Amino acid sequence: MNDGPVLFGLTIAQFEEISLKVLLTALVLYMLFIIGNLAWKSKAGKYGTIWMFVALGLGFVGFVAKAFIQRYLDIE
Length: 76
Description:
Elements: H1 12-41, H2 45-72
Helix pairs in contact: 1-2
């Protein structure tokens, strides 16, 4: 593959790293919106909404925690 600049002076690896972080952040925020909308439309109440966020949000919390653990342990 060509390692030269691709877009705005970024290499392919740099572009992939930045786009992965930005798009995964957008995906997590969109999933939070979906969970909140689901709780609102189902009239879950305060405690039901909290449990929906806890139960449905654990998947991406683990994914984010993995990134922090890798950075803390200096694992690439």
